[in-house]
């Protein structure tokens, strides 16, 4: 997929919002900044979610493969915040893809969380465990999974159904499947100035699918956080490099999921909601040298 930073002139980028609608059929809105919990397990996960809610987060993201659903659910239940005021995402593991497995995995996640429903449930990865990336069975397994998970929507166990790490061809095939009666509301993908996903974002915009970004901070790697354009912008605008990167996404209508267990950084990340980049800053960040483009997380481009 091309990642050209040129944006079609006929389709201006979405603007910043504090919450994002998940479509005309959903009563829910997604808060723009959520807490990611990848690699944050057990007691650390519990403490992180508890602290995040205390400083003002209302959006928490977890997954079956993170192995922290029990800790996340416990922190939510003990927060004394009404359940309907919190937005929770979890995800189907690649090992649980396929007919007869996906719905059962959803039910296990709800049991681990100790909750009756999730606000967003995603197919975490377009490939199934045990299959090579070029195996055509991958498409069959993810379609079986998606169709089966629609039962969870009908039963109220899933408020919104979506996908993660799906490329344009994966989405096109899914949307063309007549058995798909609840089109995906979200596609959660890696997205930042060194991997801006322009074509995928435009495709999702046209099809009413909200792009949500993970690895907005490049997983803490200095390639992104210490990039001269990022650091100079931070200095100029009185922001931290992390806030610059988060605000870059937010000002283009992309909700974010920065991960941290540090309460001070949680507050700092949430503070990106109250910052603003100027047009010249956005132009500079959208014009980074394409020869430096890179992904920091797993790459779905070769998945059939």
Q: What oligomeric assembly is this protein in?
A: single chain
Q: How many strands?
A: 9
Q: Strand fraction band? A: 5-15%
Secondary-structure arrangement, i.e. CATH architecture of the domain at 19-220 and 253-262: Alpha-Beta Barrel
**CATH topology group of the domain at 19-220 and 253-262:** TIM Barrel
Q: Pick out the low-confidence regions.
A: 1-13
Strand pairing plus helix content: what structural class?
A: alpha/beta
Summed up, the helix count is 11
Family: Belongs to the aldo/keto reductase family.
GO molecular function: oxidoreductase activity, acting on the CH-OH group of donors, NAD or NADP as acceptor
Active site: 66
Protein name: Aldo keto reductase
Q: Could you walk me through the main structural features you see in this protein, from its secondary elements to its overall organization?
A:
It is a single chain. With 304 residues, the chain is an alpha/beta fold. Helix 6 links the parallel strand 8 (186-190) and strand 9. The chain starts with 18 loop residues before the first strand and ends in a 19-residue tail after the last helix. A seven-stranded parallel β-sheet has the order 3-4-5-6-7-8-9. The chain has helices at residues 42-55, 69-77, 102-113, 137-154, 168-176, 198-206, 222-225, 228-237, 241-250, 263-270, 279-285; strands spanning 19-21, 29-31, 35-36, 59-61, 87-92, 120-123, 161-164, 186-190, 210-214. Helix 8 packs across helix 9 (241-250). The model is unreliable at 1-13 (pLDDT under 50). It has a domain at 19-220 and 253-262: TIM Barrel.
